[in-house]
Amino acid sequence: MNAFTRLSALKIVIVGHVDHGKSTLVGRLLHETGTLPEGKVESLRQVCEKRGMPFEWAFVMDALQAERDQGITIDTAQILFHTDKRPYVIIDAPGHKEFLKNMITGAASADAGVLVIDAIEGVQEQSRRHGYLLHLLGLRQLAVVVNKMDAVDFSESRFNEVAEEIRAYLKEIGVTPTEVIPAAARHGDNIVVRSARMGWYEGPTVTEVLDEFAPAVEETSLPLRFPVQDVFKFDHRRIIAGRIESGRLKVGDRLLFSPSGKTARVATIEAWKVPVPAVSAVAGQSIGVTLDEQVFIERGQIASLLSEPPIGTDVFRARLFWLGRAPLSVGRRYKMKLVTAEHTVTVERIERVIDVNDLASVTTEWVERNAVAEVVLRARSQVALDEFVDDPKTGRFVLVDNFDIVGGGVISMKGFPDVRCRPDAQGLDLTAVAHKVTMKERVRANGHACGVLWLTGLSGSGKSTIAMEVERRLFSKGQQVFVLDGDNVRQGLCADLGFSSEDRAENIRRVGEVAHLFAQAGMIVIAAFISPYRADRDRVRAIAPDVFHEIYIDAPIEECQRRDPKGLYVKARKGAIPEFTGISAPYEPPLNPELVIDTSTLSIDEAVERVLRYVEHDLQRDLLPPLAARPDVSL
Amino acid sequence: MTSDLDALESQSIFILREAFNRIDKVAMLWSIGKDSNVLLWLARKAFFGHVPFPIVHVDTSYKIPEMIAFRDRVAKEWNLPLIIGGNQTAIAAGMHPSRGRVTCCSALKTEPLKQIIKEHGFTGVIVGIRRDEEGTRAKERVFSPRSEQAEWDFKDQPPEFWDQFKTDFAPGTHLRIHPLLHWGELDVWRYIERENIPVVDLYFAKNGRRYRSLGCAPCTGTVESNATTIAEIIEELQTTRVSERAGRAQDKESEDAFERLRSQGYM
Question: Which of B48, B78, B258 best tests the A interface by mutation, with the highest count of A CBs <10 A?
Fold first, then answer.
């Protein structure tokens, strides 16, 4: 047994309002645990004497010249020390508001936090802000030290006041502190040794509380998330390198790489200088694997098991803290980094800015530096991710503007459908059987091209009316045409589905697949569906983009409510229909539809004419549309 | 993960791979000290036995001779893509610590390093510094930007969290990457012991003294010690209260000497 096999150091962040005594607490902790090098305190005392200023324990940490001059911690410093129980890395984070980015830098890597509050001043803005941010960053263990008890004559009643105030605030944000400790860091009261001057306090000292914190555990029991960091080809091996962020994998596992949908099995786990190659690996390990098939894999793909894929979406909600000099605003574009993936995202909505002092919500068009907000972000393409509550590592991201990281956020899918990444057709072990009738032959026999006309819009906008009339007119011209209508398919194909966002997504997915089968059969399909989510429609388009035509049937909600052909709006307003689009659920208009029909200004006949003209000119323009996106079973 | 050393190793490998993937032209500094030997070892682990970037050694001409012998032996054995640099003009002109230690360090270490970076167009330099070595290094980032003049603005450093590093930077500037930042001196020795990594003999005690940190002969002193094996060094470090860089004279020339050196581009 090697005496030096040790526990990993527990990372503690010390936060709090400026001048509440964080650095003093740390300096004293180092001194009392016998961590400081010989002569360090002496040399600092001499420096102070030379400068004619009183010695402060904080100088131990604030080793930089600039800090001694200004008397505040500018950056975050990390210092190692140990108690009898285990080693610690202590992160001293600056309390000054200007240096929030440094506080976050320190705090984000911590396993537990200590919030320092001045017994005289009590809970201040930064006390609350730091408490809130630690929680937002995902830190779940927090102790509170009410410092400078010497300055309030070690008063029990003053301690209780401050303790109650901070407990109340923390409770509101969902945090229960492990302990609230009265202390006088400058004199060492209740730091390591119990203070004789606070006989009324029976709880633990600061180091006792530290020793009670639970160590960090790697998330080996969560679903596998193995983001690809790089693909190496230094020799004959093609090694997929990365760190397992959660879960575990073993040789032989079939991996799904998201969002690309590629799949392959783990052939080997590679390593340098190991006598016997490993056959499994767990969260926290930086590994490299080879695959049984040469599929195209690149950095940013997230490997999972087929049974537990991440969410695949281009839109999501986030709670974020903003560090950028320029405010975050609606419509602005940023680079998002989520594990090893990079995506371009646009700020679609700012739901609310949160005042961390009183936790009130403010509705604004922008988020200022150092603020916390809830936003909806939209990516240009599919992103593989998880909700932060399910998997913190793949449920968080940073935003980059120009050369700088300007914010960080945690993901929630509240209000959006839970649609998972899926393997591509190859990954499903499907082998498409080729038809003996080609698309060319079908088009020639029908005398017209095929396609999917996807009519999207609010209930009452006129989708069904237009669809049925267009079907009649095209049929009269001898064309192969069929309407898929929302209410019709819900009586059969989708009778098992409701109207939650998940069910809506599934409804649209099924209809999309059916519509494309009709199109492959050579027909013109008119699909009339509210299909309120852009992501759902984009997925239908992705099945075969060349035959998909998105037609936005546009009418203001007031007009649709006035028409209300099925009496649904009346019911919805009474609350009889939950999640009704336009009333209690969102509608996301298309960004680049092939055609927009404004039914508030056009008559039904005019609207039908517009669609027919589109079919004649645009759909038929190229009589042989390539069906490229799917492995084409008809060619 | 089976031990704390495995966790440290995995994090360093992650950082090395980020540097290699995200930075166009990256090189690694090799001081021949124990930390940079560990760093080299970790690079070979990260890249499955390969060292896919140049290894840079800045020779001041004052290095302890055993260090240079060790360098040449290991570079050959491990087949390292070695670049050796040095400020020959300053050496020829007689630069010596007697002209001021900070001045000498700037001329013989910082300057040639800047030269090599410029000459080879490196946009990232991997350095084996650790937070626990010294106060200013404690404040470092893992990916730490340097200006066009290689200066370090320690007052305005980028945020760094969730292992998302600063990998975007303006043309002309470069990054210092610090994969060992989170290691302690004791961790380094325990890892050297576990992995059987070669180190210069100067670290082992002779006649009651040994080098704790290695540098140039005129400015590097020994500390009192009887540790003649790695195991004994580990044991000694458990109880010592002498700081690691106690034998490094340039740190002590004035109160903020080391801070000044580092903000100008010293490693």
Answer: B48
